[in-house]
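Most newcomers find our protein records easier to grasp once they have seen one. Read left to right, the backbone structure tokens trace the chain's path through space. Once this layout is familiar, the rest of the handout is easier to follow. The record below serves as our worked example for the rest of this section:


***
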Amino acid sequence: MFSGINAFTLFHVMLSVVGIISGLVVIGGLLTAQRLSGWTPVFVWTTVATTATGFLFPFNGVTPAVATGVVSTVVLILLLVALYVKKLAGGWNRTYVITAVISVYLNCFVLVAQLFLKMPALQALVPNGNEPPFAISQGIVLLLFVCAGYAAVKRLRAAG
């Protein structure tokens, strides 16, 4: 199943998978106004590690992957400040909710892109990477996260 994949890439992918799964659990908690203190550090630190390890791959100029990593880094810095420095005080709670959702979205965005790049059946649908099936898939993922983010912030206001 993992033939042809080196150990570093496998490590990066596993971090990403754990970050996505734990992030989805955390978002589920945000949607029900539950602070999942056991899941939150798993999500945060695997997502930070995913972003950091992404920059350790060979650099071949600025690519969509590098741009996504830069955006993810900025978002994660805000998330870390909100969670660990400001301790979710005041508006930093909302900042945390928004940045948590964006962080998981960015990992899912990359996941969908990688699935289209690496899975032959999906790759056949988008040989150039800009065909409608790719755009529609990414649009659906974006819409789901925008709705989840809106609902989580709305839930936060109702609980506060």
